[in-house]
Amino acid sequence: MIQLQFENQRVKIDAGELVGYQVDGHEFIHQKGSPGWRSSDTEMFPIIGPTAEADFKVTTPLGEAVQDQHGLLREMEYRLRSQSDTKAMFQKEYIAGTTIKNSKYPKKSTEAELSWPFDFRFKKHFELTGMGLEITFTISGDEDMPYMLGYHPAFKLHTKNPTINIGFKVITLPDVLAVGSRALQVPDCNEILLKDERELLIKTHGFGHFMLWTEVPNMVCIEPITFYPYAVDQKNLQQGFQQLNSDKKEFSISIIPI
After folding, report:
1. Which residue, among 63, 78, 51, has the nearest Cα to 116 in the 3D structure?
2. Its pTM surpasses 0.85
3. What's one GO BP annotation on this UniProt entry (predicted)?
4. Is 175 helix (H, G, I), strand (E, B) or coil?
5. Where does the chain have alpha helices with state H?
6. Which of 46, 149, 177, 184 is deepest in the core (most CB within 10 A)?
7. Residue 63 in contact with residue 117, Cβ under 8 Å?
8. Other C-beta atoms within 10 Å of 81: how many?
């Protein structure tokens, strides 16, 4: 367990997963074992969304790749690369064609192994500052590799009537619950304010959109995404791809207590 500290802020990271963020003792992150979700955060890469209706295959310029929901990155293990009192950096590295065991098999998937026809390196960097917690993702790999990226953090709710505010628009917890497993789309948005017992501002760079998901009243996932996967048929997920170029790509999320 990695622990970061800055003034009144405490962060806990378990094998690259954000499992705790406290400010003055107030916990903002959904805790494992609580109703709702077995994790507290994960990344969706190189695809976002389900693939079962497409026989767990995604079309790429190098042929079809076997991918389960939200991609294979979540099935890989992070390695700690650097650490200080306020910072930690983790990395996953993938070699094209390597088979990765699918944890959803056989109960929720017909595919025992997943693979991707491109090399990539994925870095996750945490930093505590006077403003709050910043998480940065850096992606590098084969030029022209297609990809989508989503970050999937779950926030603990302390009140019965929290709201999610986007400018003057207010989204309630029943609004999110009503959409169910598809997740509520929030297009063309880089900033969301979660109003609960304490307010939390979530600002992003590079993603462009959000989606909101929960199936329980004690947590909500506020997920920055590059593409909303339910906008297309599963067999056409490639429509949401971006491409890597010779430079690395960076995406960031700032979690700022108000």
Report:
1. 63
2. yes
3. carbohydrate metabolic process
4. helix
5. 173-179
6. 46
7. yes
8. 12
